[in-house]
Specification:
The protein is of the alpha/beta class. The chain is built from 23 helices and 20 strands. Strands 6-7-8-3-9-10 form a six-stranded mixed β-sheet, sandwiched between helices. A six-stranded mixed β-sheet has the order 16-17-18-13-19-20, with helices on both faces. A four-stranded antiparallel β-sheet has the order 2-1-4-5, with helices on one face.
């Protein structure tokens, strides 16, 4: 029997009017969504995925948006639907899960009340029944202790739990179509897999159709029936998932599949989208003997940093008359790192990775244990000695936009740490060094006088890297520094980090929840779970022969593609 169409997008073009100019961002795209299917729309940032989905929901600003073509939902033209009538469709018939739950949930309302509000608006339920239905929905999306989460504010629950609350809100009115816009970006690989499984279960149970938007083709392979690949506002490939993954036709699709680090081999340089489209030959893979020689040279020298029995305990107040409750975020952790090495620190959110990184940076002192840098106990340093150490050990943050001062130009932001550490003799010499660094990280000298908001996410990450290396550090902690980047931009940044390591002799502690990326980057792997080291050793060996059940679960959760 022929499957029934529920949504048809036909020859859709979208343009935005800005300062008297009209710019077309979506070019004549067409696709269908069938009942009870999952259609994935894949592409990098700026490809038009989210703009297309916002057009379906009628959420694009009407004043400066021009839309041509048609969007038909169950024989109803959505482009001709009045706002008053659209309000009955939005959230009720067609619902959406947004990419960032923290900015989508109301921080001043309890989680349960936010779902109740939707049920009261779109259904005939009274408040008591709406609360019962909300608790049932929380159970359905597999939230723990549903009563507790009902009463919690968004900031009191984890990222994965926030995403589940968003899913509960989206399915509250049993919509016919659910649009999931990057619902797993920046989540742990295990939580990501749980959300994917949950969406599939809900889709089958409620017989709804899902438009799943993502930049990660490997992830899409785990959920989609059909896939539309978008590139610069066009759909360049549109096929059944199995056919697309086994035999991709368009060069861009092939490039997206190639840009993610392989789990089977270690290329000396990751191919970027541009490399693939320009038909550049792929980089060679590192041979077993080359890797063995590299590791032998690394570990023949004394360690640069030694972490010995380090603990970090936090205390929370249990009330006036009760004893404070102790929580060990880092529990008896020991490892060594050698000059020129990349040590991968991996684990789920809350395992203690970033806390350990902060203890090494002396931003949050360890409660117990010793941290030796070049044989010196840095956790005992104070004053001028500690300030001098700051130059040696630096960090690249996860979110460069949040870590860059929006009021400083890029040039000022990079010069600032040079001035603090009194590097170079004059402002002219510092500026010359900044211009060199900008070009070294793949930016232009003309970017010196621009502000952070004028750059893309990938460019801002490069600015963050330039700022970090401006003080000539020895040890750099990369804290989830590529987790929110597009696959191709991620490949560019990883290549850049490896090039800088080779040119300047940097040593990295690479913190991430993405085991595929960590495995590619790392010489040694440290896997953390609940504050303790679960497993430690050669990165390739751990991936091929994981000993602990927790490590096996992390590896099993990596999207493999088809």
């Amino acid at each position: 029997m022929q499957p029934q169409k529920i949504l048809t997008v036909n020859q859709l073009s979208i343009s935005f009017k800005q300062q008297g100019e009209v710019q077309e961002v979506i070019h004549n795209i067409s696709f269908d969504l069938y009942k009870n299917e999952i259609l994935a729309i894949v592409g990098e940032s700026g490809s038009g995925k989210s703009v297309s989905s916002l057009a379906i929901l009628g959420l694009l600003p009407k004043k400066n948006t021009l839309i041509e073509g048609s969007i038909v939902f169950e024989n109803q033209s959505l482009l001709e639907t009045k706002e008053k009538d659209f309000q009955k469709i939005r959230g009720n018939e067609i619902s959406m899960i947004f990419q960032e739950p923290m900015s989508s949930l109301n921080p001043s309302m309890r989680c349960g009340e936010q779902v109740v509000e939707i049920l009261l608006q779109h259904t005939s339920l009274n408040r008591k029944s709406a609360k019962e239905e909300t608790l049932r929905l929380f159970e359905k999306v597999k939230l723990p202790t549903v009563e507790k989460i009902y009463s919690a504010y968004p900031h009191e629950i984890s990222g994965g739990q926030k995403q589940r609350v968003m899913i509960a809100m989206a399915i509250a009115c049993k919509p016919k179509i659910l649009i999931a816009d990057e619902p797993t970006t920046a989540l742990d690989v295990t939580v990501q897999q749980e959300i994917i499984v949950l969406l599939k279960e809900l889709q089958l149970e409620n017989q709804m159709s899902i438009i799943f938007i993502s930049h990660d083709l490997s992830l899409v392979s785990e959920i989609a029936d059909r896939v539309a690949v978008m590139y610069k506002g066009d759909i360049v490939e549109y096929a059944f998932a199995k056919a697309l993954f086994s035999n991709p036709q368009h060069e861009y699709t092939k490039a997206l599949l190639s840009a993610r680090p392989s789990l089977d081999e270690r290329l000396k340089m990751l191919p970027t989208i541009k490399d693939y489209l320009d038909k550049k030959p792929l980089s060679e893979a590192e041979t077993t003997s080359e890797r063995a020689e590299h590791l032998k040279n690394l570990y023949a020298q004394p360690p640069l940093l030694e972490v010995i029995n380090v603990e970090k305990t936090y205390f929370s107040s249990a009330g006036i008359f009760a004893e404070d409750i102790a929580f060990k975020a880092v529990d008896d952790v020991s490892f060594s790192i050698y000059e020129g090495e990349t040590l991968g620190l991996v684990g789920e959110s809350g395992c203690g990775k970033s806390t350990l990184g902060n203890a090494i940076l002396q931003l949050d002192k360890a409660t117990a244990g010793t941290i030796l840098y070049k044989g010196m106990a840095i956790n005992e340093m104070r004053g001028a000695a500690l300030r001098s150490l700051r130059k040696e050990i630096q960090i690249i943050f996860q979110d460069p936009f949040a870590s860059l001062n929006p009021r400083l130009t890029v040039g000022q932001a990079i010069i600032e740490p040079m001035e603090v550490h009194k590097l170079y003799d004059s402002k002219a010499m510092r500026k010359k060094r900044v211009l060199e660094l900008l070009e070294r990280v793949g930016l232009e000298a003309s970017h010196y006088d621009r502000y952070p908001h004028e750059f893309s996410g990938g460019q801002r990450q490069r600015i963050g890297i330039a700022r970090t290396i401006a003080v000539n550090p020895k040890l750099i902690i990369c804290d989830e520094s590529v987790s929110a980047l597009d696959i191709s931009v991620q490949a560019q940044v990883l290549n850049l980090l490896n090039e800088l390591k080779k040119d300047f002799g940097f040593t990295y502690i690479f913190i991430s929840h993405d085991l595929a990326v960590v495995k590619y980057m790392s010489d040694q792997l440290v896997i953390m779970n609940k504050g303790k080291i679960e497993e430690m050793g050669d990165a390739d060996h751990i991936y091929e022969h994981p000993e602990k059940e927790y490590t096996q679960r992390l590896i099993h959760a990596i999207p493999k593609g088809m």
